[in-house]
Amino acid sequence: MFSTFTFAPGTGLFQNLADLFSYGDGQFGLWALNSVLYAGLGGFLSTLVSAMAGYALAKYEFRGRSLIFYSILGGVLIPGITLAIPQYLLLSEVGLAGSYLSVLLPIIISPFGIYLSRVYAASAIPTDTVEAARIDGASEFRIFRSIALPLMVPGMVTVFMLQFVGIWNNFLLPFVMLSDQSNYPLTVGLYTLLSKGSGTPALYSLAITGAAVSIIPLIVLMLVLQRFWRLDLLSGGLKG
Amino acid sequence: MTATLTPRTPTTARSRPSRRRRGRSAPYFFLLPALVLFVLFMVVPIIYAAWLSLQTYRIEGGGILGTRVRVFTGLSNYVSALTDPDLLSGFGHLGLYAVIAVPVTLGLALLFALLLDVPAARGTRFSRTAIFIPYAVPGVVAALLWGFLYLPGTSPFSDITNALGLGSIPFLKEPGIFGSMANISIWGGVGFNMIIIFTSLRGIPADIYEAARLDGADERQIALSIKIPLVVPALVLTAIFSLIGALQLYGEPTTLKPMTSIISQTWVPLMTIYKDAFLTDDLPSAAALSVILALGTVVLSAIVLGITNRRTSGARS
Amino acid sequence: MKKNRIVALAATATVTALLVAGCSSGGGSSSPSSATGKVTLKFWSWAPGTDKLVAEWNKSHPDIQVKHTDAGGGDASSAKLLTASRAGNAPDLSAVEYTTLPSLIVAGVPVDLTKDVTAATKKNYAKGTLQQVTFDGHIYGLPQDVGPMALIYRSDILKKYDIAVPTTWDEFGAAAAKVKAADPSATLASLPPDQTGFFAGVATQAGAEWWSIKNGKWTVGIADKASLDVADFFQGLADKGYISTEPILTPAWNAEVNTDKVLSWPSALWAPGVISGVAPATVGKWTMAPLPQWKKGDSAVAYQGGSAVIVTKDSKHTKEAAEFAQWLNASKTGASNLLTISNVYPAAISGQQDATKTAPPALMPKQTDYYSTAAKISSNTIPVTWGPDYNVANTAFGDTLSKAIQDHTSWSQAFKDVQKTVVADMKKSGFKVTN
Predict the structure, then answer these.
(1) What is C148-303+383-429's CATH superfamily?
(2) Which residues form the signal peptide (chain A) (predicted)?
């Protein structure tokens, strides 16, 4: 595919793929697994945290509700570039920098995910059902787990999808945080192929092939998840 | 600014939870993980960055090189950021890019959504997924691939115009660069925004159209005079998010930078922030610029919301 | 209500503490060093094959184990090292580019290795090489690879057009004109504005000193007479269309090299490896020659690129780290491995001598005198002092010169503007500057 762009002439796609997966004793495979871990686990935790927060913000009235909601929403205004270094310094203080957790923890909080969850919860969970359960003596946690959560699944799938794509493609945070090659996700690994000192040739064709390969799991995931996919939630709060 | 973003809470009066104590602490319990993480990984870093923006690095001590120490400097980082002509031209570039990218993205998203909403439309699920897939391609990879298609030496488009004797297309020169840049982000943005608008369209009760059809209106007239006015709130939402996204333009120009000398290291504000934070080791200056950018975004969003709110509320009354 | 809020806040604080405590026991990143005397050193380097070199060391040094990580090269990686160092997490050893070393010293990243460097190590480096890591008489790193400047060119095509290999820059200009005349779609070379290292190198060759230190004060010479002459010279070639100023190492440039439209690359001794990677169609058609000179008969050249290994202040095992760094870069085995496994041009003299016995790079298999020419070139290099704000100069240079080229304004004015930016930045930082 890329040889048509005269980027790696003379070497076919299959040769590139073979080179890619054998580079550095199969590091590419390890990076891919790491990406799956960061995006999968991070996306899952992020979805869960967002769903809980969104449910609370949509279905309860309490002091500070608006303040909390708009503070969190305001988080999208600060670019990640500015936050990465302070986050690194903070996690270093507690001895976490460089670990898997240093990449996982900061990505769990997602203002957009919380916003979507709130909108979805507001429209998908009937207040009457919640009230009825309460009158039957169900605990608040049980109401959330048995009534709210199942109703929110389609919305959570979307949040998971968006978070998964976001984490999969995130470069700067893992680049700043990690200092062990075996923890790298794909983005950082591919960066190290491209970015060498000025006396060392960069591995262009490997990096390009790797970048193309790294998109495939995302597309597969989208095709698989689209059956659950109800993006209605995005506009749920806008009707009327 | 927040009125339109507030999701509708149905039956506000009755949704008040039970007056028992555990009911009252429940929302805090559900919010706890989010709040803890929000404070740790956003509030604290933001406060740190804001505090850092009031400092600067100075050389102290003997020797030729001395040692760099951080000292308090007040607002001087803000002054030098705001008086830097590069920042102004950066916002200029951003403006030209946004003027193309935001309306085209929203226009195409609206068009596709309306087309998918026509009752006779077939294969909507497939089309919806196909239009959405570019969103999954990372901006950097998309920019790299588009770079091939833009560069005079490798562009198939320029091959064609060259063969016709027209010379190569100046994709990477001014003013073409703004269109080229917008094009890269439009692909990813259209699908995302289309879904928002499409689902909003699906929420409109079908009987509204029936009346119009009985009056002899065709699908185009229905789209223009009924559907579009009804999805204005969704359009406002997508506009705000697109605007925030446009202001944080960074990946595409950074990827194209090595391919053309027209993109400087301070071409857009976020590239300047990156330069300060990662190239010239001036985090305080990067922090000051980030604060300026964030405040600018708030003001701009408020203006957009203010205008649209007045319009929609005027329309309602 | 108020009470509930306090409870909620208290709960938040508790969970935070638990979270942090629980996690930090799980995934700490502190360097393990047990009481048994066994030491583990962390080492960041981007050179390919470093893992193999490290494995060889680890096999013969069971008490000093090295753990290698590729943290990338380039500017962002230097920021990563700085950030890690500020947090006290820097690896024991790291590869750094010569250009960024001064800014790292200012930030207190490397330790002074003067006392740890043995006489044998010093003897294995040319004076100019060691000077690249020496400031104020203190040695801050072990040179790993060097990039003495050289010209690689398409011998087949220059021969076809009957163009002699240029030995001076005037001849280079004349050759560029001939190439244009012979094939208007080809160019002798592209010298784009973002190649700060190239322009700094040829200016140094002309006698310029972009940074110099005298009596404890800095002098910036980006706009000194020699540099401005260099600017005028290359602007002359570019204005006449003899050379290109399009960016290099882009897909377009690579395609042009592959299709015989770019006929030379004035850069440094590492160039053959890069071209082999991006333009495999041209392998076997290149030759390396000494870089053209400003004055006929001169032979000294400057450096472009290259890197050294530093030991950071965060290392608890400076002595062991210094021992490894010297083995890797200045020992006979190490320098030879750098040549054959990492494919870089070693900084150590022994490695450069070994090179003369090995086959020439794949790009020019028939040029059997490649490495003896290389050794001759590197025996006569001009020591360069990089300033503590090289990165500021680098971005300013690329941006300012690009603008001058687009607006068709004077290159030497661009050099003067860069000078102004760099001086202002140094003064703002608190350096003593004579300009």
Answers:
(1) Periplasmic binding protein-like II (3.40.190.10)
(2) none
